[in-house]
Amino acid sequence: MIRAVATDGHRLARVELVLPEGAAAMPGVIIPRKTVLELRKLVDESQEEVQVALSETKIRFAIGEAP
What we know:
Blueprint: E1 2-7, E2 12-17, H1 33-45, E3 50-54, E4 59-63
Antiparallel strand pairs: 1-2, 3-4
């Protein structure tokens, strides 16, 4: 199960989804609000699949042919 949690300072939202293939070893991460907003813009503009890569200190999102 993958869980996303967010707050606006007053309300708390939580969503749980089936864990995507290959994500079993993915550690818990905190993604800054600005990053989520920018990613959402890109996802809304594209029908491509989003790939997520994690390292010890970085997170990388790839959509389609974008580097």
